[in-house]
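Re: your question from the hallway

Yes, I did run it. Sequences:
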Amino acid sequence: MMETAIVVVDEIYDFITGGSMACIHSEESVAATVENIRRHPEVPVLFVCDHHPANHCSFKEQGGPWPSHCVQGTHGAEIAKELLPFVREELVFYKGCDPAIEQYSGFDGRNEAGQSLAEVLELLGTELVFVTGIATEFCVKETSEDLLKAGFKVSVLKDCLGWVDQDGHEKSLPLLEAEGIRVIS
Ligand SMILES: [Zn+2]
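Structure:
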């Protein structure tokens, strides 16, 4: 059997209903991700988290495209509480920490020990990665593409996604499939 891992992207409060960048299908995404993790208790779960300094370049005040979000030390940067029972600190990877660099992909995210997501997936012997989270068109897409490029098999769990824009979401899924990423329920 293939060694698998689940990568949960940005299931954090600023992307969930009530947050500064609340996404479509965000609460459903959290609930479906929890269900999926429960169904596969033996599979390691890695969390990717947007984790910005207050002056991050992607924020409108700095000339970027987004409202301020996921600022380090705020509630908006915390993982949804429903997922906390599955969080292991060494398997949480932070991205967007440098004020000058936008980072949609979790691939280069680092844990507290400075290890990258890719590095830890390798250490776990992972061959197949299931990706869930928010948002389909940005961080889920880029994380999945980078994992595929690095040689992992990647399956995106469609029911476990949230998105910024309905049209963007619907257009992203066939693009991912064309690249060799499986999109499954
Ligand atoms: Zn961000």
